[in-house]
TrEMBL record:
Pfam families: AAA_lid_14, HTH_8, Sigma54_activat
Organism: Candidatus Desulfovibrio intestinavium
InterPro entries in alphabetical order: AAA+_ATPase, AAA_lid_NorR, GAF-like_dom_sf, Homeodomain-like_sf, HTH_Fis, P-loop_NTPase, PAS-like_dom_sf, Sigma_54_int
Keywords linked to the UniProt accession: ATP-binding, Nucleotide-binding, Transcription, Transcription regulation
Superkingdom of the source species: Bacteria
Name the record gives this protein: Sigma 54-interacting transcriptional regulator
Record's keyword annotation contains Nucleotide-binding: yes
PROSITE patterns xref list: SIGMA54_INTERACT_1 (PS00675), SIGMA54_INTERACT_4 (PS50045)
CDD domains reported in the protein's UniProt record: AAA
Annotated GO MF terms: ATP binding; sequence-specific DNA binding
Membrane keyword on record: no
Gene3D superfamilies attached to this UniProt entry: 1.10.8.60, 3.30.450.40, Homeodomain-like (1.10.10.60), P-loop containing nucleotide triphosphate hydrolases (3.40.50.300), PAS domain (3.30.450.20)
Amino acid sequence: MKYALPSENMRQEILQRSYMRSRTYGISPDQKCAPESSRLKPRDLDHLRQANKVLLELVLRQMGVLHQILVDSSYAMAIADKEGYILEVTGHRAMLDEYRIRKCLPGYRWTERDVGTCSIGLVLTEKRPIMLLEGEMFNQHAAHVTNSAAPIFDHRDIFLGVLNISGPASATHLHTLGLVIQATATIRAQLAEIENQQNMALKDQYLMVLLESDRRGIIALDKNGCIVHHNTKARKMLCLPEDAIGAPLDAVVASSFKIQPFSAQKRGFSEREISYRVQGQMRSFVATLDPVTLPNGRFAGSLLLLVEKQQVINLVNSLSGVQAKFSFKSIISRSKELEKTLQYCRQAAKSPSPVLLFGETGTGKELFAQAIHNASDRRGKPFISINCGAIPRELLESELFGYEEGAFTGASRKGHPGKLELAHHGTLFLDEVGDMPLDMQVKLLRVLQSGEVHRLGSRTPLHLDFRVIAATNVDLKLSMRNKEFREDLFYRISTFFIKIPPLREREGDIELLANFFLKRFSGTLGRADMSFSPEALELLLRYSWPGNVRQLESIVERTVNLCQRNVIEPGDLDMPQELPASAMREVEEEDAHSTLDDVCYRYIARLMRAEHDNIRRVAAILDISRQTLYRKLEVMALRGIYQLPGARLSHD
């Protein structure tokens, strides 16, 4: 055996590193080929090839390149995985015959333990390029062959396998190893590129999913304002045509606002209302335009985000608590008189027609309005309330109708929706409607008749759908006679005219409500065992309650906070001065032939004197705003019922 022992010209590094190891493994130098015990079953080989599919494709491509370079040489190539299993071989027929004889074939394992010193086995062990010269193979039958092999790493330095080239020793070239190293380097770069492409594709897929899952319409524009991409939501919102990609957005769909000038100036805007013409109708959206800049600072285009205005309004209404929370179950009563009113309210709830609630201050008109709303088919929709007497006259119009950008000095740059818009599909509650100025009554009537609203500063009408529930403690019929309230508006809002009885006319409800409020407030303070003495209850029952339920609730709450005993006595009830039941009877007897307004005005005059002209306290007792009380005092002064104190008015 010529090579049974190391040859004299064997490099010492090969001798020390591999040859001696191979001898310890008990491998015979006369072993012609890889043992059958190292061979994979065909099914396992198929699985192994499938697991290394990407790597195998890249290596086969490089093998093809090398084969063209070495086409005139008797070389063959093999690729092994990280465990040493041969996955594929190719090359010159003569050398492939050598491979077949030595079982360097797909499915066989080539390691030092299997075949002794070999280039594939050495690379598997040392993970570096190797070139074995003539006589350096452990197998004596391969003495006439040289082998050049290099490890294959991916871009993360993870070892994947070995690429090997074998050829006759007579045709040995040092550049062969260089070719193998260059091929493995190319494979490494290609693996990095493939992963990069996969990552980009994955990111693109995530981005597409993100764009499609967004509830907003999203349109990507280039630097000229042309559509680059849009999600399905945007296409449906604006009914974009199939050929929209590449076309200027401003040309594809008509709008009240042009995007191209912003693209030209490389700037954007935030939450601006834009109306687009969609299928012949103008639809409103809240839009944001964000400029897109590249890492080098160059302007690339813009991203347009669209949200339907009604969706924004619904969100604002939801977060701001403009949903009605009271129902008919919230109204506590056992009064037959009030039960008749409730039956009428339930009938009104089944109809879309307007409702006018009439009742004294503190009878709970808004509670009844919310109950009607929640029993109607508009439940869950906005319940927008506006106090027509509490808002200064010069602000009432903008509050009701809203305004566009620049409509007046101090107007928001983004414009502002009015209460009418916020009530779309829901209910608009006009509290103290009797105090609405005449010019505003005209404008409101026009809206109720046409169903269209014009914002201040806008020529574009908004088509709205809302139900009106109005409330007042003023005798509107008398106001109509006095030319203070329009007759046509009255009939427009009073399809259902519902009178809410005052607390003094609700038999059995004073005690019921007093105990209800006592239980609630005492429980909050951790004093649930509080009760009224018979004498205290009698005092409550004899009182006229000009402030109605609101006044009763206020007095009980104040008493619970101040009373130190568990049983409330008459002296613990902090009743307003000069307001016993006899006071109301005195007013009624004195004004038996007067109008309801005059009776109310005289009663306010008595309150003002009793409270020493304290505007804040009287307004609180009447449960009205200070502005409303001021207007009533001015009317009273003109009628000679009460002389406006002027400088003597107290606000403390």
